[in-house]
Amino acid sequence: MPSLSVDQRRALEAAVLATPVIRRVADAFAAAGHDLHLVGGPVRDALMGRGVNDLDFTTDARPDAIEAILRGLTRTTWDMGREFGTIGASVRAGSDEETVEVTTYRADSYDPASRKPTVSFGDSLVGDLVRRDFTVNAMALSVVSGAFADPHGGLADLAAGVLRTPSTPEVSFSDDPLRMMRAARFASQLGFGPAPEVVDAMTDMAERIDIISAERVRDELSRLLLSDAPRAGLDLLVRTGLADRVLPEVAALVREVDEHGRHKDIYQHTLTVLEQSIDLERERGHAPDLVGRLAAVFHDVGKPRTKKFEGGGKVSFHHHDVVGAKMTKKRLTELRFSSDEVKAVAKLVELHLRFHGYADADWTDSAVRRYVRDAGDQLERLHILTRADCTTRNARKANRLRTAYEQLEWRIDALAEQEELDAMRPDLDGTRIMEILGIAPGPVVGQAYRFLLEKRLDEGPLGDDAAREALLEWWKARS
What we know:
One of its GO terms (biological process) is tRNA processing. By secondary structure, this protein is of the alpha+beta class. It has 25 helices and 13 strands. Helix 8 packs parallel to helix 10.
């Protein structure tokens, strides 16, 4: 079994063994006659010099014993995972407080037709580690004795940047098919490449992902997209056929490659837009944004359905924005994203072409106001998506589009300062409309409100008196 180097041992001790909360929990388990191992991601991350956040432990103690030990340290425990042998707790040591989860050694497997594992508790650490997803997550450190366990060569794979499974990939992915998506996530999150046998198994077993709940697939996809470099993981899903099961609209883009060069490679363009949107997120001071990244992935999914060959060998994709928005809404709803997320992403997909009218002709202030109104609270995300959507290699065209959008943003900011554009409300509210016209609540109030809103969009703020006069003229003409 490979041993730790001096530097690796020091890294583990600094990140783990010296942590006050971990020491307190370790002492409690040792006093009760049990071993306790930090396992999986925390060990991997400590060895990579990354921050250790989640404290996941495994032990020979059974759930009742785990709970009793933890209750001796804190009143704050929970057992939502008791059926899987997991007890959680919030433990304090001095001024430090950490959330810990402790799980009994397990030896579970999945029924081929079930979404849930059949749980049985194991008696050995080695038996527990073989059921982990990848060798780099199948290393453990005893926080009681300091012993390091790596029965499946995780250290070597960590050094090589390779994703392998402790057992055969076929057994591992059959036990939990979500591990195939996790391989894609780690490819992006860690920058590791899957071993050839892992890729082969993912390709051969892609349909097994169908038994996994939409919520678990959604969560894994979200983690992948929120990583620093999601392109690698997304591409792995497509290459192995997993995307055909979970993101068929994106997988379909690959089949739109035009060997005659009449239009750009939509799939590669999509991956580039995703990367460029992430760069813009950072440049503009934003945290990783799931909604914005989903919009980048889905913005052109309507193209295959709207593809049309025009005269002169040209290809068009008329209304792919509207069609793509509907497709996006359907897919994200099926993946159980929240209604707010679905609505926001679909809106961005629908609006992502709106700017091109500005690039081709001068917009009036009214048109700029409408652009802002239609974007609503998604305006900043629309700025990022629209800018990222420029992937042309024509330097002159790219510079023209970039300059045009900078000008549009400048005009939006200038109008906002002058007019409080963000509010985008007419000068008179519903109460004032009813008061001026002497009418009761009803559809006419809404019609009058929309008239005044259009007036404001066209002319800017009118002021109370001018708005009142315009309303009365509208009312007179209506009568």
